[in-house]
Specification:
This protein is an all-beta fold. It is built from no helices and 11 strands.
């Protein structure tokens, strides 16, 4: 019902930068928090950064000062600017959205419950 599509991953050398983008589409009624998680090989999935609909941001301690999350509520998109990249951030990065859909009855849209949606993930590889 809601699709999240990530883009911008790739291979970069240590010290370089990448910008990830994520666009939400579908029967969106509203989106609360959006964020980025990552999962390295053999590791648990972890929160990298999140942003509320009002622009309040949260970061993992390991990325503070180097990563910046931003959001465009009019386009239902978020971005993650990653600078000073290190090999240890190599992982698949997933976009998430805590969002509600709608059901249309006649001319009226009725909000459904909130669910956490995940994108398919985009690979980020940082070489040393």
């Amino acid at each position: 019902q809601i699709q999240l599509v990530e883009s911008g991953g790739g291979l970069v050398q240590a010290g370089g930068s990448l910008r990830l983008s994520c666009a939400a589409s579908g029967r969106i009624f509203s989106i609360a928090d959006m964020g980025w998680y990552r999962q390295g090989s053999g590791e648990e999935r972890e929160l990298v950064a999140s942003i509320s609909s009002g622009g309040v941001t949260t970061y993992a301690d390991s990325v503070k000062g180097r990563f910046t999350i931003s959001r465009d509520n009019t386009r239902n998109t978020i971005a993650l600017q990653m600078n000073s990249l290190k090999p240890e951030v190599t992982a698949v990065y997933y976009c998430t959205a805590d969002a509600s859909t709608y059901e249309r009855k006649g001319w009226t849209r009725y909000r459904q419950g909130f669910e956490l949606y995940w994108g398919q993930g985009t690979q980020v590889t940082v070489s040393s």
